[in-house]
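in:
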């Protein structure tokens, strides 16, 4: 199973379990997580959600081979049917508190999804990156506004435009993560935080989360729609084709011929 799903003591744990491919996420994996979160919404016994990877890798982001097989229309239509959209909407819209524990690399959507979680903890070996521009693409799932709100425009611009990786300490300074924990202690610490949430009044947690997210609900929805429109068109453009071709050919892309 590429996604391990378990319910224990009121916590739904979703674990990326594809280490041989650096936990790269396929459509099937997105669908599995979407289904699990949606089921948890209807299950009163689930009072918190925990998302984890492996000690050496959180996720390398989209599995590019799988991603390219499921090409989307250039106008961005039909996104509602894509499993990645279903997962991100389930995650963003969950009324349950979501805890994420990041060790190793969190690439692309691996960093984006953290902005839709409530408590994010990083191991001291964590590394984050959003290389959308490097792939000839643009930010996704409201990361263009959420990272700006979290870190401020100058820092968000640096991370989104250059797409360079940054470490746990900088993520903490930016406000992307809540705390840095030694890698060997991360899983247990995150499970402990989830257990604290389980012990608190579920109605109070729900109300607090709803109130905190209310002001950004509309802007996030609008940003996702705008990003998707750009993303679909850019995915069919020559810059992205050059980026993906270069990736599979294991060379640096040449964007100088595009204006």
């Amino acid at each position: 199973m590429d996604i391990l799903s378990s319910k224990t003591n009121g916590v739904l744990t979703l674990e990326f379990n594809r280490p041989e491919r650096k936990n790269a996420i396929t459509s099937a994996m997105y669908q599995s997580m979407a289904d699990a979160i949606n089921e948890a919404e209807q299950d009163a016994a689930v009072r918190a959600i925990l998302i984890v990877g492996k000690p050496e890798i959180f996720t390398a982001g989209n599995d590019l081979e799988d991603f390219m097989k499921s090409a989307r229309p250039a106008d961005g239509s039909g996104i509602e049917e894509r499993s990645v959209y279903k997962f991100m909407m389930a995650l963003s819209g969950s009324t349950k508190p979501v805890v994420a524990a990041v060790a190793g690399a969190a690439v692309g959507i691996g960093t984006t999804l953290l902005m839709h979680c409530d408590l994010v903890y990083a191991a001291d070996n964590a590394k984050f990156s959003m290389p959308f521009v490097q792939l000839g693409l643009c930010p996704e799932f409201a990361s263009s506004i959420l990272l700006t709100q979290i870190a401020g425009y100058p820092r968000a611009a640096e991370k989104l435009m250059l797409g360079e990786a940054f470490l746990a300490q900088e993520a903490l300074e930016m406000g992307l993560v809540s705390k840095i924990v030694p890698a060997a202690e991360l899983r247990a610490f995150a499970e402990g935080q989830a257990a604290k949430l389980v012990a608190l009044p579920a109605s109070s947690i729900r109300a607090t989360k709803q109130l905190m997210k209310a002001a950004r609900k509309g802007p996030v929805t609008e940003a996702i729609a705008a990003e998707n429109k750009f993303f679909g068109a850019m995915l069919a453009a020559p810059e992205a084709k050059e980026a993906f071709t270069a990736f599979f050919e294991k060379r640096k892309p040449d964007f100088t011929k595009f204006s």
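note: The two ends are 44 Å apart (CA to CA).
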